[in-house]
Amino acid sequence: MYMKKIMTIIAAVAVACCSLSAQEALGRRINTTSPEINPDGTVTFRLLAPKAITVAVSGDCLPEGNAQMKENKDGVWEYTTDVLDPELYKYHFVVNGTDMLDPSNIFVCRDVTSIFNIFIVSREQGDRGWLYQANDVPHGNMSKVWYYSPTLKMNKRMTVYTPAGYVGGKERYPVLYLLHGAGGDEDAWPTLGRAAQILDNVIADGSAKPMIVVMTNGYPNTPAAPGEFNAGVNVSTVGGRVRGQAAATMDESFPDVVNYIDKNYRTIPKKSARAICGLSMGGGHTFQISKRWPDTFDYMGLFSAAAFVNKVSYVDGRRVVSDEIDPEIEGQLATLFAKKPKLYWIGIGKTDFLYEGNEKMRNYFDSKGYPYEYVETSGGHIWANWRIYLTIFARKIFK
Predict the structure, then answer these.
(1) What CATH number is given to the structural domain containing 265?
(2) Which residues contact residue 136 at a Cβ distance below 8 angstroms, ignoring those fewer than 6 apart?
(3) CA-CA distance, 151 to 98, in Å (whole number)?
(4) 297-340 pLDDT tens trace
(5) Whole-model pTM?
(6) 121 vs 88: CA distance, rounded Å
(7) Into how many domains does the chain fold?
C-alpha cells in the first residue's frame, strides 16, 4: 500500500513536470525581434545564427528580390530595407544556401507549395496596408463549407464570407463569387488575398455594399485544399490531379455552386445581385462561366486572366495563341454583351506574362464595341496586384 502511494506521487510529479515543460515550450520566446517595422518606414530583419556562414533574406520587399545580411558581435544577422510602401509583404531567410522561415515571426502563409513569412506596413487609415489588416471595424465570418456537386458527382469544399450583421439577421445580400488561380485552392483568397480583411474594411468605410463572398476550389477533380479530404495530408493537390479526369469542367458545373448558395444563404437570387471575378486561371474561369451562363451574373472581373478570344493550341506543353478568333467564343460573347451586363472589368500588370492575351481580348472587345473598364498596374503576375483589383472591384459592384 505504501509503495503504491509512493508510485502515485512519483507519477503525479512526472505529469506535473511534463505539463510545466510543455507550457514552457509553448511560452518560449526568441529574444530577436524580426521583422521590426521602424518609425522611418524601413523594416529590419534579424536572425540569431552564430554558427551560420552566410545568411540572406529573400522577399518581395527587396528591389532585387534578395539581400545579404550582416552578422553582429552577438551572432545576430541583420538587414534593413529601404523605406517600404504600405503593403503586405512576404519573405524567408536563406541560411548557408537553405531556405528557412523566420523563427521570430509567427505569421506564416502558403502560396501553392511555397511557405513564407508575411508582414504588413501601414501608415494611415485607408492605405493598402490598412486595407489588408484586421482593424477595429465590424467583422464578418469566414466558414469552410462542404457541398455536393451533382454535375461533378462529388463533394467539394469552399470558403464563404458573410458580412457583419448576417448572423442573427433577416436581410438578404448580393453575392460575389471569387475564384483563385492555378495551383491555388479555396484557402488562397482568405490567406494571401486577405479577402475577409478587405471586405470588412471597405464595407465598414461605406465604399462597398455588404455582400456574401464565395471562394470555391477551382479544380473540378479535386475536393478541397491539401490535407482537407481523404487523400491524406501527404498528397499534394496542386494542379488538381487527385481524382484523374473530372466529370465536367469548372464552367459546366458552376451552377451547382450558385444553387447551393441560393438555397442555404440569405441571398438575392437574381442576376443583378451576383458578381464573379478571379485571378489568372480564376479569371479564365470567370470568362468561361460568364459567357456560358449569360443570365447568371451582372458583374464580371478578370484579374490577370488566362482568358482568350483567339484560338489556343499547345505545342510541347507551351500555349500558343493564334490570330484567329474562336467562332464558339465569338457567339457566346455576342450573347453575353447583348444582355447588357452592368460591369465587365479587366485588370492586369504591365509585365504580366498574360498581357499579350489580354491585349488581344481587349482589341477584340474594342472592335465589337463591347463596353468594359480597364486598369493597368505596374508589376506582373503577383498577389500585390490581385489584392488591389479585388479592392477596386468590390467597391464597384451592386451599386
Answers:
(1) 3.40.50.1820
(2) none
(3) 45
(4) 999 999 999 999 988 888 777 777 778 899 999 999 999 999 99
(5) 0.89
(6) 6
(7) 2
**Could you tell me the residue range of the domain that residue 48 belongs to?**
36-121
> What mean pLDDT comes out for the span 201-214?
98
Residue 149 one-letter amino acid: S
Rounded Cα gap, residues 56 and 68, in angstroms? 4
Residue 325 grid cell: 478568333
pLDDT tens profile 341-388? 999 999 999 999 999 999 999 999 999 999 999 999 999 999 999 999
pLDDT score of 233 more than 70: no
Q: 338 with 355: CB under 8 angstroms? A: no
* Cell numbers at 291, concatenated: 459567357
* Nine cell digits for residue 351: 509585365
Closest CA to 60 of 81, 29, 34: 81
- Measure the CA dihedral 179/181/182/183, to 10°: -90
**How high does pLDDT run on average in the chain?**
90
At what angle are helices 195-204 and 383-396 packed, to 10 degrees?
40
In this structure, the answer to whether residues 240 and 295 fall within a common structural domain is yes
10 is a domain residue: no
Element (H, E) at 283: helix 281-292
Amino acid at 152: L
Give the CA distances from residue 95 to residues 47, 109, 288, in Å, rounded to whole numbers and listed in that order. 10, 20, 44
Residues 155, 102 share a domain: no
Q: Which of 164, 157, 238, 147 is nearest to 199 (CA)?
A: 164
Residue 116 Cα distances to 3, 90, 382, angstroms: 53, 6, 15
Identity (one letter) of the amino acid at 52? A
Peptide bond before residue 341 is cis, with ω within 30 degrees of 0: no
309 and 334 Cβ atoms separated by less than 8 Å: no
- In the chain, the amino acid numbered 100 is M
Determine how many CB atoms are found less than 10 A away from the CB of residue 34: 24
Task: Please state, for a pLDDT cut of 90, what percent of the chain lies above it.
Answer: 78
Instruction: Tell me which residue of 99, 90, 109 sits closest to 43, measured CA to CA.
Output: 90
Same domain? For 269 and 321 the reply is yes
DSSP state of 339: T
Helices and strands in the chain: count of H runs, count of E runs:
9, 20
CB 324 within 8 A of CB 312: no
- Whether 76 contacts 47, CB under 8 Å: yes
